[in-house]
Amino acid sequence: MLSIEDLTVRLPHTARPAVDGLSLTVAENETVGLVGESGSGKSLTSRAVLGLLPPKAEATGKIMMDGADVLAMNRAELRQHRTRSVAMIYQDPRAAISPFRRVGDFLTETIAMDRAAAAGLLETVGLRESHLRNRPHELSGGMLQRVVIAAALAGRPRLLLADEPTTALDVTTQAEIIALLRRLRVPGMLFVTHDLELAATICDRVYVMYAGRVMETRPTGELFRDPRHPYTAGLLAATPRLDELGTLPPAIPGRPPDLLAHLPGCPFAPRCPHVLDSCTAGVPGLVGGVACLRAEELCDERP
Amino acid sequence: MRRVFWMALTLAVSSFLIFGALQLAPGDPASFLLSGRSATPEAIAAIRERYHLDEPFLAQYWHWLGGVLTGDFGRSVQFRSDVGGLIASRVPVTLTLIAMAFLLIMVAGPLLGLLSAARPGRVDRSILVAGSVAVATPSFVLGFVLIAIFSVNLGWFPSMGAGEGLADRLHHLTLPAIALALTFAGVLARVSRSAMIEQLGQEYVTVARGRGVPERTVLRRHVLRGAMTVIVTYGGLLVPGLLVSTVLVETTFGVNGLGQLLQYSVTVKDFPVVQALTLLTVALFVLANLVVDLLAPLADPRVRNR
């Protein structure tokens, strides 16, 4: 359904692309995770699928949605694309809805519908018809996120882009929103998060991003059982565990690179415990879902 | 209730300041009354008594304040008539002028600001330059230019007077209203431009675009709507400034309104009139503040809960 081919996005006044040669697919009835630290380019990627890039950003490559290239769409096609085929759920619902207007105005803004239809949408996400008259500041964050989800469903989209949809919410609300997203059964979903465990609970397949590049992509179960890329392994090891209370998990040394740094070769090389000289010589391609020169070798070393 | 108290206090303090400041001004009203004629000391004393000029300052103030509170603003030294009536007869002209200018400002300012914010580059820069020129042009200079072009050369509008009847009056006051509006419209355009640029950076504007809302609708329902708080606040607070600016504009166009009355009364040291008009300006300012405060919840629903 969605197929991104070799997408590169350059932002103005930066040394390296924020998204660098990324390829990604979402098939019919598949939920795909896009995982990475902040600044890894995952949000930018999901916004690019909407055709919503920051001004002066340069994008090359292809974003094919049901056979049409989003990057080549004209204004009318793009509007059609955003209202009917793809919809996004945002990180902070309070920032996503204008505080000056009513919930009902927000719901019916893109697609003409009567009151009953709008009320129906609210019911799908567990809200009541009376919420149509509410102002955003009268609702809680969790309720507002439900409103955002209801609005995303308004155009019956084929693909839902969830950009950190629970990061700004309480833990209990998070669980409710995740349960809601799983129940919706939109044909496809791209779930963007920095939370590996969350991705594990909801996604069929996961892409791990680092510095604008895909480091590893495999079915969720395999990836968590047997991470092949040193970065994925480091991320999983850095996740706190309930059975080891009181001990801090090992952090990955160093910090993610900013956009002003040029990165020859593998972007993770400066922080990688298994780094070789050859790692910085050239960019490793994705082989068997892993972008690491030593993937096979490291895999064999393990018991 | 608290608000009413503060409004009353503002008016009381400013009435005292106004009265006191005029007492400090050089020149004795009595000598103006006699307009250079030599008079007997008895005649001068009679005039001083007639206008309470012989009493101590506080007593004079008290006397004046008592009058003001009962609607009696005293008698004009120059016109030899009630200040209240003098002002009341000129209110309609000035009010029409201010209303016309206000309408022009509230339409042109936000519109130019929106255009500026939505079209960075050449359009934005042209509007900014034009706005700076507008802000820097004194209203009477613009007044002369407008008269030269539209009255003398084209003959579309009269250059003097306020006209009779509604249509004629609006016709007469068009050029003065434009002259009065220009500076304020320039400032409001700037203020709304920055408010709207701030709105354009809001996440909900990006979200609306990402949902396929047409750009025109985004600008109207989100950007303009979001900047409304700033526009309403600024718009309300410029009304007293408009009243003050009528001094220049009405004099330029020979409109017999409050502005011209104030200008004339200051020249001839007609203190009761100046005092009343200044107090009226302060009252208008306080009133404008109140209206802005009452409108705030309409502009931003979140204010209501505070």
From TrEMBL, chain A:
NCBIfam families reported in the protein's UniProt record: oligo_HPY
Principal location class: membrane
SUPFAM superfamilies to which the protein is assigned, alphabetical: P-loop containing nucleoside triphosphate hydrolases
ABC transporter domain span: 2-236
Family to which this protein belongs: Belongs to the ABC transporter superfamily.
Membrane topology: Peripheral membrane protein
Cellular compartments annotated: Cell membrane
Originating species: Nonomuraea soli
A molecular function GO annotation: ATP binding
GO CC annotation terms, alphabetical: plasma membrane
InterPro entries: AAA+_ATPase, ABC_Ni/Peptide_Import, ABC_transporter-like_ATP-bd, ABC_transporter-like_CS, Oligopep_ABC_C, P-loop_NTPase
Origin superkingdom: Bacteria
Taxonomic classification: Bacteria, Bacillati, Actinomycetota, Actinomycetes, Streptosporangiales
Keyword Transport: yes
Protein's name according to its UniProt entry: Oligopeptide/dipeptide ABC transporter ATP-binding protein
PROSITE patterns named among the record's database cross-references: ABC_TRANSPORTER_1, ABC_TRANSPORTER_2
UniProtKB/TrEMBL annotation, chain B:
Pfam families from the UniProt entry: BPD_transp_1, BPD_transp_1_N
InterPro entries according to UniProt: BPD_transp_1_N, MetI-like, MetI-like_sf
Record keyword Transport present: yes
Bilayer topology: Multi-pass membrane protein
Protein's UniProt keywords contain Transmembrane: yes
The entry's keywords: Cell membrane, Membrane, Transmembrane, Transmembrane helix, Transport
Gene Ontology molecular-function annotations: dipeptide transmembrane transporter activity
Main location: membrane
Entry's transmembrane regions: 93-115, 127-150, 170-189, 230-253, 273-296
Localisation per UniProt entry: Cell membrane
Residues of the ABC transmembrane type-1 domain: 91-292
GO cellular-component term (any): plasma membrane
Domain of life: Bacteria
Database matches in PANTHER family: DIPEPTIDE TRANSPORT SYSTEM PERMEASE PROTEIN DPPB-RELATED (PTHR43163)
Similarity section: Belongs to the binding-protein-dependent transport system permease family.
Name by which UniProt lists this protein: Peptide/nickel transport system permease protein
